[in-house]
Design goal:
The chain has a single domain, classed as Gcn5-related N-acetyltransferase (GNAT) (Aminopeptidase, 3-Layer(aba) Sandwich). β5 and β6 form a beta hairpin. The protein starts with 11 loop residues before the first strand and ends with a helix. It has an eight-stranded mixed sheet with strand order 3-4-5-6-7-8-10-9, sandwiched between helices. The chain has six helices and ten strands, in the order ββββααβββαβαββαα. Helices cover 29% and strands 28% of the residues. It is of the alpha+beta class and 247 residues long.
Length: 247
């Protein structure tokens, strides 16, 4: 795949002397995300297929039967396998959000889900959301590779300008994850959403196409098998590599 990079244009002034955003003379609307697999070294990210994935996802989500991983999602942990199937069936019917299943290559089983959403091809903006990592996926190299594969699709394959991450402002693990993955915090939208009969102030994060080349190098270095010792412990952290790449 060819990497598509758009220079961050400098602001200018119009004929009235007013400051205006930099020109984008070559910008054209982008394509919708395709339904083809995103293939990595440790995992594949594929479009959700409830018939194929429900059983694996049910077992994966049952590794935390408390349901706390669902607290900040728009639904709670389904109580039965049938209820999960109904939820996944509904998710699979939409093109936006476009829900994907994460397949761990070591087990060939589904271990979580994540979606492209709020897809705006005209503006070149897309969001990653509805992320639900099971305990089998959390705190693993696979979890990071998922995000890397989705970023590569957004920037390298489709040429979008902006990639967004949004979460409940009280969801501190999600905020921490966004920062670790290289997203930049932009602010909090107060009383932006209601869900589960409660308020949500939404924290916004973003990543730009101009930032992607250095972030991509950091991810590639972190995901390299040489960055892990024989016990699987990382030698250098992703946060450290991202800081170096941004210098």
């Amino acid at each position: 795949m060819q990497t598509i990079i758009h220079e961050n244009p400098s602001p200018g002034r119009n004929a009235h002397g007013q400051p205006i955003g930099g020109p984008l003379p070559d910008w054209t609307p982008r394509a919708q995300p395709p339904r083809t697999p995103m293939v990595g070294g440790r995992c594949d990210v594929v479009v959700l297929d409830p018939a194929a994935h429900t059983d694996d996802l049910w077992e994966a989500f049952q590794t935390d039967p408390s349901g706390k991983s669902w607290t900040y999602l728009f639904v709670d942990l389904p109580a039965t396998r049938g209820a999960l199937r109904a939820y996944l069936d509904a998710q699979a019917k939409t093109a936006d959000p476009l829900c994907h299943t994460i397949i761990d290559r070591s087990s060939c089983r589904a271990v979580g889900i994540a979606s492209f959403m709020r897809i705006d091809p005209n503006m070149g903006v897309i969001e990653v959301g509805n992320i639900n990592y099971s305990e089998r996926l959390k705190r693993t190299a696979v979890a990071t590779e998922v995000m890397f594969l989705m970023m590569k699709r957004v920037f390298d394959e489709l040429g979008y300008r902006r990639y967004e991450w949004k979460c409940d402002s009280l969801n501190h693990p999600s905020r921490k994850a966004a920062e670790r993955y290289g997203f930049v915090y932009e602010g909090t939208f107060r009383q932006a959403v209601t869900y589960k009969s409660r308020n949500r102030d939404t924290a916004w994060f973003s990543m730009l196409d101009t930032e992607w080349p250095s972030l991509k190098r950091a991810y590639e270095t972190w995901l390299d098998p040489a960055n892990f010792d024989p016990q699987g412990a990382q030698r250098r952290s992703l946060a450290e590599l991202i800081r170096e790449a941004k210098r």
